[in-house]
């Protein structure tokens, strides 16, 4: 299947079932490079404990989420990170062209979940964060196996789905869907982000 066909499938699935799994979105070679960059960042102290809520409502709570994050943007020095941002930009453009979602921007970060951490059931689009429309997660776990945990559970009215966080896989889902990162028994790597219906510099506005 070529990229155009894959895109059409992604668009269909996002509108009909609310999510789409895109395997090998990033090559295994590039996964290795991204993990190396995340490890460097983590060792040099640029990863911070992730919180919940925004601005004044921001709080840290290990009982809710246990990951460490590093925000990624156009100032990032790594070519491979820039390539990934470009891919997401293209994806955003074609979602707009085909689904009229009015996506204006996106925000994204590396996430590392240490062993025995999780992110409890939540939605990404909520009162204080109403501009997230499509969530995306690129998984970077080489040799991930059943039993390592860290699956993403997606909750629908009539069913649950568990997505394995395997290397190179991009998961797309509607940000209002309830989801949860189940307990990870291994260190778990990913790049998580959100496509927004407002420019990032303006998301503090209603
Ligand atoms: O890493 C994942 O599978 C999802 C992460 C997530 O739900 C979030 O950061 O909001
Ligand atoms: Fe989430």
UniProtKB/TrEMBL annotation:
One Gene Ontology MF term: ferrous iron binding
Domain of life: Bacteria
Keywords (A to Z) from UniProt: Dioxygenase, Iron, Metal-binding, Oxidoreductase, Vitamin C
Keyword field contains Nuclease: no
Cofactor: L-ascorbate
Record-linked InterPro entries: HIF_prolyl_hydroxylases, Oxoglu/Fe-dep_dioxygenase_dom, Pro_4_hyd_alph, Pro_4_hyd_alph_FE2OG_OXY
Occurrences of domain Fe2OG dioxygenase (ranges): 104-197
Any one Gene Ontology BP term: cellular response to hypoxia
SMART domains hit by this protein: P4Hc (SM00702)
Pfam families hit by this protein: 2OG-FeII_Oxy_3
Name of the protein in its database record: SM-20-related protein
